[in-house]
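Thread: Newbie trying to understand structure tokens

Hi all, I'm a second-year student working on a class project, and my supervisor (Dr. K.) asked me to get a predicted structure for one chain before our next meeting. I've only ever worked with sequences, so writing a 3D structure as a token string is new to me. If someone could post the tokens and maybe explain what I'm looking at, I'd be very grateful. Here's the chain:
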Amino acid sequence: KCDWSSDVCSSDLKLSGEVQELMGDEEFMSYVESRFVKADEEAVKKVILDATLHLKHALAHYRLNNDELEEAAKLFNETAKEIKEIAYENYLINSGWALRVEAIKGSLAGDDLVRLVNGFRQLYEETFSKEHFRITAIYLSATSSTLGGYLVSLALTGNYEMINELLEEHLWVLNADKQFSVLTRLMLNALLRPRGGLSGELEGMLSVNPEELIDAFEPYMRSEFLLALRVALGITKPDMYAISVAMNDNAAVVQLRGQLINAFRGLLSKKLGLLKEPSADALFNEFEGLVNGLDGKSLVQLIAPANSMARLALMLRALINGDERLAKAHALIGAVSVSGKLLTRLFLEAYRACRDLGSEGCDLKNDKFRRAIAGLFFLHV
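---
Reply by user tm_fold:
Sure, no problem. This is what the structure looks like when written as tokens:
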């Protein structure tokens, strides 16, 4: 039997003994018969292998979320290799995850960045190969993710020409996954705009209007704040009392500020071991200071996200619009509200990188800050 707590099963799973044992199990064979025309030894082996690789993929994500990056990269690479001949789209997905783990683990500079770009280029070429490319939901989702990673790695190198070429040819593929598309275009705006990398045509392809952002992330916004968020982003006209916060009604704003500050205090108390800040009180005071300086429309954007991907999208939008205070608040509440060691670390690193710039603020021309937000992007796309 495989001991998942200490090691990962090899793909053969010692099949010779396992297959014979399982073929004598009526309930298991009934399951095999439901999936295959002929429930023979080869079908049983495939079922076992599928289950093994599924578990290995799940274990890789567990290691990743726990910030065990070496182990996660190894598992994603192993899974990709073993599943390539069985399900090519899953090979692409696991290969993409392996690359993104390397991006997070590395420096996103120098030789590390060169290797990352080369890795994404190779995966891009495999993804779009005539032999394998097909228009199915899972394949297009994997393709959109690969393309997004390749584009952002190119943006970190300043290769604007290649980005433009790829978008002209494959923008429809990037748009196949609305969330990946919006997050990628926001990230490219954040990286390219401050360094003059947006031509008129490229700027048009990368623009993200508020309607697109809400359309992509509506399932991951808190429903009770969705209408107020639409008002805050200028999508809906204010005609209901429920959106009084977005219109800066004083009483509602004060109430929401208090709600956010109290929620942060509770979340912070559960995260002290992971944050590694010298003083929890100092971190709380920083958040309180940020929130006290936000108006109703910003407070709505801060409280609306229900997951880290939606929060990152709104954080990037704030950065693009020069709203440093809101971006810092997003990063700080992101660090204490997410599960998993890695997300906590990456949000906090983005916050610290911004805070440590001092008078420069969240400077998107600063390499350290650019790499910090890129790390968050690679974990989500």
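A couple of things are worth pointing out once you decode it. Residues 250-275 form the longest helix (26 residues). The radius of gyration is 23 Å. Feel free to ask follow-ups in this thread.
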